[in-house]
Design goal:
alpha+beta, 3-stranded antiparallel β-sheet, 32% strand, globular
Amino acid sequence: MQRIVLVIRDRGRKDIVAFHPTEQAAREALADYVRERTPEASDAENDAELIAAYFADESVALYTIAGVPAAKC
């Protein structure tokens, strides 16, 4: 079984590492993160463009979404 991890590094903010059940859920969380920090973009309909614009300068902010195996306990 695989889980999806979302990692966000944003200059001047605490790093975020969050696990999600699906890649879609991680992308929705990422879009929510961007919308919270760019209120003027809250009505934008295209999440992909909004995310790309926010993370355009990797020296300021970056993110990754990756699948990781779930731990077996």
